[in-house]
Amino acid sequence: MVVILLIFLFLTSLYMGWVLWLYALWRRLAESTPFTSDASHLSILVPFRNESENLKALCQSLKAVLSHCQHVEVLFIDDHSIDDSIHVIQQFQSDYPGTRLLHQTDTFGKKKGVDLGVATSDRTWIVALDADVVLPENWLVAVAANTAHSKADMLILPLRIGPASNLISRLQEVEFLSVMGVTASMAAAGLPILCNGANLCFRKEAYESVRRQRRDFHITSGDDLFLLHALKAKHTIAWVHDLRTQVATQPHVTLRGLAMQRLRWMGKTSRMNDLALRYTAWLTFGMNALVMVGFCMTLNRPSLLPFFLLFFIAKAIADALLIFAVGQWMCIKRVKRFYGLLIFIYPLYATLFPLISILYKPTWKGRATNIA
After folding, report:
1. Of 197, 271, 209, nearest to 235 (Cα)?
2. Number of domains making up the chain
3. Among 269, 297, 329, where does a domain finish?
4. From the CB of residue 369, how many other CB atoms can be counted at a distance below 10 Å?
5. Is residue 369 very low, low, confident or very high in pLDDT (cuts 50, 70, 90)?
6. Is the pTM for the entire model greater than 0.85?
7. pLDDT over 90 for what percent of the chain?
8. Alpha-carbon distance 296 to 37, whole Å?
9. Which of 269, 294, 314 is the last residue of a domain?
10. Structure letter (DSSP) for residue 70
11. I want to staple 236 with a disulfide (CB 3.0 to 4.6 A). Which of 110, 152, 190, 348 is the partner?
């Protein structure tokens, strides 16, 4: 029993030290708000497959941002859609004739779609977006300015999940704040481990310099993380602490949709050999697994309840510091209310899903994913 308690104490201390370090890094980030109306160096890539409804919202927001910034290239890449997506893009092209629609004729998947878009583009900077995002009005002005003034080769942009419409989506919104906190803080420390292809910038030259070395194009997902870790060795990667560059992506409203997404994310993470990423993943998994072990132990030995509560509350406070700070910066409301529920659900979810991802291959857009 003493050994078990020492393990609890050691891992809790390690985890809390790491989260508090991330929180300190986050607090040091300085807001950046450069400005330009010239986006002639940018190419926006939007790969899509069967996203007609989401594309309507994206195109509507894209019309607003294009009115503030000129000369940007816009490329939509179709991945064998069978719904009304192409018609939505053609309607958008009638208003913006410079928009181009590309088709993946011999390839499949978002990663190959991005690759086709990069090869087609003649601009120096690529901005990759998911088809289900909505852009704020000043997004393009901010992205153009940050890329024009940056010496980095990849810029990680902020992303939020929302707006939330039910309890499942609200919990996703709060949980994802921790992901953004880790993403930004680790990048600020010079140890970037995460990014999201729903809102990501990189230089075309940097992409092409690592393309032949990559061995991940057969893996379905991971267009963002595999690129980040390919660039990490010899290129500069930075977080953009400019709220104007934040976009919103749609949450899943069903448990099945959420489960499939998280299993895809965990599947691609397991393929990374990055030490900092593995440390983060194992520490997070170990801490949440300990919460579940501690809970089961108190059922058998109620005398351990005070120790377990102390351990549980310490973890909850450390996590809250980072999540509340990110939520405040992103202007997300009612974070505290739903965080109070999330702390009881997340340990189970964060323990089971990594284990399930070892054995189960999720589907995406009607296709089986390949992570081998």
Report:
1. 209
2. 2
3. 269
4. 20
5. low
6. yes
7. 72
8. 58
9. 269
10. B
11. 152
